[in-house]
Amino acid sequence: MYTNPKIVVAAGWHGLTAHLINREVISFDMDPTCASIKLFPNVKYKIKTIENFDPSPFDVIICTSCEHITDETLNNFLSRKSPTSIAVLQSNDYYSIKDHINCKQNCEDFAKSLNLKIINKFTLKFNNYNRFMIFAI
User: Fold this and answer.
1) Per-residue pLDDT tens for 75-97?
2) Nearest CA to 74 among 126, 14, 16, 116?
3) Could you say which of 6, 27, 99, 107 would form a disulfide bridge with 18 (CB–CB 3.0 to 4.6 Å)?
């Protein structure tokens, strides 16, 4: 569908996910140290909160930190994307971490919490928790 998609990584911290895509990607995070400690030259860092970032110009929106974001904030952010943009989202059921304010019981619960059309969903099992991934438009 896209030959040269514009990609953004929300709550991208130090930009590892953006770097692994191996092309120019914007990674934004509310932590200003992420931009000052620039680890990857192919990543364009922005200091923004998810509430104040405009996802509409991007074809692919990635957020691997949904367990750190409330459903309301995440859905509000995603409601501002282009209707044809693909969202790639991850969460987990790892409740024991203090900053995990929005874990889900399973991938189905994660999918139900999103105001998007689900394309596909997956669960990756680890020893202590499960990681959920959803592709949606």
Assistant:
1) 999 999 999 999 999 999 999 99
2) 116
3) 27
